[in-house]
Design brief:
By secondary structure, this protein is α+β, with helices and mostly antiparallel strands. It has helices spanning 100-129, 131-154; strands at 41-42, 49-50, 68-69, 157-159, 163-165, 187-190, 198-216, 227-235, 240-244, 252-255, 262-273, 280-291. The protein has two helices and twelve strands, in the order βββααβββββββββ. Helix 1 (100-129) crosses helix 2. It starts with 40 loop residues before the first strand and ends with a strand.
């Protein structure tokens, strides 16, 4: 036989009646108490703006783990951020009022830079989507470049070589005649396509050449000789420029781009304008201009 213990039911303890508390109603999303500032956290429950360091909403207590962050306007991002000032060891921070003028100047400078950036961006967009504005901007840029080139040209000075070496020419037409600044003299030499003639020019000191004026042929008998059509200017800085010439007796001006810090030049005739039944090449003058 199995013995079964009787089950004794215990009576519950007496409980003092409690006041029933009303459940809080749902929080409605309303307008924030102040205008949210960039970087603040917007509560998804009530719409209040909160400091980025807060974990819970200051108005309704809701968690801010998934709160929306107020973004900074694109034009405000153009402003330069001010770096925190690092004081040297043993120094003290400035007293109130010290450096007020400097801070005002820096603040104004930042605003000016931001304004210039906005203007440049606006003009760029306008020029990109509005053809008349693009044409106007292109014309103005061209005018400014032309003025700058004009000022640069007035600052250039003639560069005179100290020696000119090259193949012997006809009687009274030596290589140095190509650099003697006279228009009634010329360098005349034999033309050989397989071994084109060249001139080696030595300068007194390194200079920066900016342009060259070339007069081809012979001033007294232009059509009676072969004329240079393409010249190569090889410099002592291991760079070079190609000078394309027209078949005309007048002076021709050509810009030089790679002649910086030059102390010697080699002028080589690469191509010519032929003359019938003639085997001599004529070159009246080469004028160099630069800074130095």
């Amino acid at each position: 036989m199995k013995l079964v213990a009787p089950v004794v039911e215990e009576e519950p303890e007496e409980v003092v009646p409690q006041v029933v508390k009303a459940r809080p109603g749902p929080v409605r999303r309303v307008a924030p108490s102040s205008k949210p500032r960039p970087g603040e956290l917007i509560c998804g429950e009530c719409g209040e703006g909160n400091d980025p360091a807060r974990k819970f909403c200051r108005r309704c207590g809701n968690s801010l783990a998934e709160a929306e962050v107020v973004k900074v306007r694109w034009w405000r991002r153009l402003r330069l951020r001010r770096r925190p000032r690092v004081l040297a060891a043993g120094s003290r921070p400035a007293r109130p009022g010290d450096g007020k003028g400097r801070r005002a100047y820096q603040s104004t400078l930042r605003r000016v830079r931001a304004g210039i950036g906005v203007l440049i961006l606006g003009f760029g967009l306008l020029a990109g989507f509005y053809p008349p504005a693009r044409t106007l901007v292109t014309q103005q840029v061209g005018n400014v470049k032309q003025k700058i080139r004009g000022v640069a040209d007035t600052a250039l000075t003639p560069i005179r070589p100290v020696s000119v070496q090259g193949p012997r020419g006809s009687t009274g037409h030596p290589p140095k005649a190509a650099f003697d600044t006279f228009k009634n003299t010329s360098w005349i030499t034999a033309w050989n396509e397989k071994s084109p003639p060249r001139l080696t020019v030595q300068l007194d000191h390194p200079v920066a050449l900016r342009k060259v004026i070339v007069s081809t042929g012979d001033s007294t008998d232009y059509a009676g000789h072969i004329r240079p059509a393409l010249l190569e200017f090889a410099y002592s800085n291991e760079k070079s420029d190609l000078v394309q010439l027209k078949d005309t007796p007048g002076p021709q001006q050509v810009a030089l781009r790679n002649a910086v810090g030059v102390s010697s030049i080699t002028v080589k005739v690469l191509n010519v304008y032929p003359a019938p039944d003639v085997k001599t090449l004529a070159l009246t003058e080469i004028e160099l201009f630069g800074i130095g």
